What does this fold into?
Amino acid sequence: MKVTGKKIEQVYSYAKERYAALGVDADKAVVKTVEIPVSMHCWQADDVGGFEVKEEGLASGGIMATGSYPGRARTPDEARTDYEQVLRLVPGTLRLNLHACYAETGGKIVDRDALEPRHFANWMNWAKHHGIHLDFNPTFFAHPKANDGFTLSHTDKTIREFWVRHTVACRRIAELMARKQGGPCVINHWIPDGCKDFPADRWTHRALLTESLDAAIANEKSVNKKLCLDYVESKLFGLGSEEYVVGSAEYYSSYALSRSIGYCLDMGHWHPTEEIYDKISSYLQFHKKLLLHVSRPVRWDSDHVVIFNDALRNIFLEIQRGRAWTRVALATDFFDASINRIAAYVIGLRATRKAILYALLDPTTELQKLEAAGDNAGRLALMDEMKTMPFGDVWGFLCQRAGAPLDHEWMGEVKKCEGNVRWHRHG
Ligand code: RNT
Ligand code: ZN
It folds into this structure.
């Protein structure tokens, strides 16, 4: 059934009244929701493979996409075609979050420490053409010098220095991206460093990591820190680093705070039942800004496609209730190779945008009033009633206004081009 534009406006105007009765301005929420930038990760399109010309002896380095659904992007052009379709199907401001291994070096092997902005010229031109900004990440995995599980914290100085040079090279690329796009570029540093079983020395790697990060970031003055916004991402465990991860939450939150750089929390990087919503108001007492990696762990850091669930809504509700929207940067981080990859993007990005809208429609003032009056039952009742408010009608209106399809429409478009892709893309 085709829902007409007029019908969407009619149901929206009823929904708007319902929210207004709770002191919430739905028009404002809709406008603000589409303005909040969400940085879309480049790596769902090709299963975190990257496009660099590779040397021998690769390892997965702690990241692995599972599944073999056809249609993986095999070239940067195929990936960009996929992103373009995603941009058409997802409402709101998107950025593109690139990894260094997506460099285009014209068929030549260029090692990670020799990467230059020109290797990302196609990406910058593409982004400019589509009016979107870029973010960036050094790639510390899938490389011979990451094969034994340590990079910036390796006990071998030459290996550490290689990765320090890579980090600096990436920060220069990020700075240039920022200059070209006329706005800062977020660069996120995640390293896989750690080991499978009990190390006899947990201390040395952490001390070495501090030395490397200081050399590459804190004391590296050649990069403009207003343009290149550095974040460090913590993790509890990874594939092959189950017992010990050098860059733990305690390590990186302390490092970031002591060096005035940003801290990144990924939703999947904690104990299995631990969620991050409660951490936001703690970290933001002391940190200036947080980068949030929007992901969905299923029993472990599995990077499932993000859906509109409590874990996601609670994060954005926290940001709304603390009026902290300007103090967080949002980036998606999931990869599922077992389903259509464009659909994966659209599901995850639309869910993220929905959860932002859901939070902006929260009757925060009313809830906080009830709490101040000691009416805890009233607070709980209103929180639960919000779940059956006509939220979907506001979301439908937002999609229409942003020129994006409604929820029941976009999958048809993905299916239409899936036939083509299945036919052409092998391997
Ligand atoms: C890995 C981290 C990291 C990566 C990307 C590809 O556990 O979550 O953010 O997913 O850098
Ligand atoms: Zn992450």
